[in-house]
């Protein structure tokens, strides 16, 4: 549409307006709160675009600036909360095989399926339930989020079987979270089968990385 490019310019302008108010010495590799700032920038961009869309042609610049300010503040709050939640989660988990990725707008807890399940099984190993229960405890400390549990496999075997196995394994992890006290209203489970590899399926090491269950923590507005 003809208004797409002007709206994009306005949205970027709103984001730049917000960053212009930030001390440049506090941004970058030496920052103490990189995820807070990243969240602020994500929120500012989204807020600027929404603000521009909510105004008429003559007021889109003002709408973008207001939207950027509001979105930036909300995004910064989410980023700060995720930083705190990530730190607490790292302290609570005692398994180096479990990885935590903070993208600035979500946390991704990745559990290798090789430590969670026996081959072709979708029953969580009892000794590994402790790690999932630690995640559950953290989720209860930080209730303002929804949780997506996503199962993945490597490419060995038939694709339809892998899809079903990934769904069952995601459901098994979701059930542990539920039984540990996380509200079922917050939990969604999905299977992606072999469709979303993060490494090459041509090596044993790559296949092991692809066999995983991810717990994705998505903050919601408080």
Automatic annotation (TrEMBL):
Stored SUPFAM superfamilies: OmpA-like
Protein keywords: Cell outer membrane, Lipoprotein, Membrane, Signal
Lipoprotein listed as a keyword: yes
Leader sequence residues: 1-22
Transmembrane residue ranges: none
InterPro entries given in the database record: Bact_OuterMem_StrucFunc (IPR050330), Gly-zipper_YMGG (IPR027367), OMP_bac (IPR006664), OmpA-like (IPR006665), OmpA-like_sf (IPR036737)
UniProt KW ATP-binding keyword: no
Subcellular location, record wording: Cell outer membrane
Residue intervals of the OmpA-like domain: 104-221
Protein name per its UniProtKB record: Lipoprotein YiaD
Organism: Roseobacter fucihabitans
Organism ancestry: Bacteria, Pseudomonadati, Pseudomonadota, Alphaproteobacteria, Rhodobacterales
This protein's encoding gene: yiaD
């Amino acid at each position: 549409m003809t208004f797409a490019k002007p709206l994009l310019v306005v949205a970027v302008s709103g984001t730049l307006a917000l960053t212009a108010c930030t001390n440049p010495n506090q941004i970058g590799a030496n920052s103490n709160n990189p995820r807070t700032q990243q969240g602020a920038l994500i929120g500012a961009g989204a807020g600027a675009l929404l603000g521009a869309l909510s105004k008429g042609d003559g007021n889109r610049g003002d709408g973008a600036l207001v939207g950027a300010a509001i979105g930036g503040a909300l995004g910064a709050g989410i980023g700060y909360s995720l930083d705190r939640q990530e730190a607490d989660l790292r302290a609570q988990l005692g398994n180096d095989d479990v990885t935590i990725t903070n993208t600035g707008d979500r946390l991704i807890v990745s559990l290798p399926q090789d430590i969670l399940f026996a081959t072709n099984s979708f029953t969580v190993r009892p000794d590994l339930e402790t790690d999932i229960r630690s995640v559950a405890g953290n989720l209860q400390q930080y209730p303002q989020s929804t949780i997506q549990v996503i199962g993945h496999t490597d490419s060995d075997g038939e694709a339809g079987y892998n899809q079903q196995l990934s769904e069952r394994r995601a459901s098994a992890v979701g059930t542990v979270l539920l039984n540990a006290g996380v509200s079922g209203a917050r939990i969604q489970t999905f299977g992606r089968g072999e469709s979303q590899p993060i490494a090459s399926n041509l090596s044993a090491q790559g296949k092991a990385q692809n066999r995983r269950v991810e717990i994705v923590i998505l903050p919601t507005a408080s």
